Amino acid sequence: MGKTYARLDGRLRAFIEAQPVFFVASAPLSGDGTVNLSPKGLTGSFVILDEHTVAYLDFAGSSAETIAHLRENGRITLMWCAFQGPPNIVRVHGLGEPVFRDDPRFAELLDHFPDIDATRHGLRAVIVVTAELIRDSCGYAVPHMSYDGDRDLHARRFEREDDDSLSEYFARKDHVATSLDGLPGLPLPLPPSTV
Question: What gap in Å lies between CA 76 and CA 141, rounded to an integer?
């Protein structure tokens, strides 16, 4: 049976922090808009800031759907599944905000991610999520899978980019500056970093 939690602490926090992958879902307000679901990983790119707030690093990619949805309405759900050990699924439903590189909070937020060199991955923003509803469920149908390690492909691809070349890369992509539904996405050219 699922349970609702008042905060991210204890066993719940330990479970979330032990998972090597999580999923992010967002959607526009429009009923016929495109729902987005993205896997997230890279060890050290997710943190629990306090009992009600989490954050993850948003890196270069082929689109910016989550950013566009958050800029429009803020709604976001994060989900973790136990692929090893006892079955469990945890969801954090909340309000998210992309904190861009020119935001005064950006440098302070990056201090919470000491184990990852964000410059190697084309960092676009820090996504900060305030939990409004925290729930778990059984996860009985989630298969057992092994975690072999992070892929190094993302870092190898983007570590050779600077701000100008990243801006050019994003400008060539169809759904970075605007979402699939035409919502404002990533500000281009990239804002200068505060770090």
Answer: 24
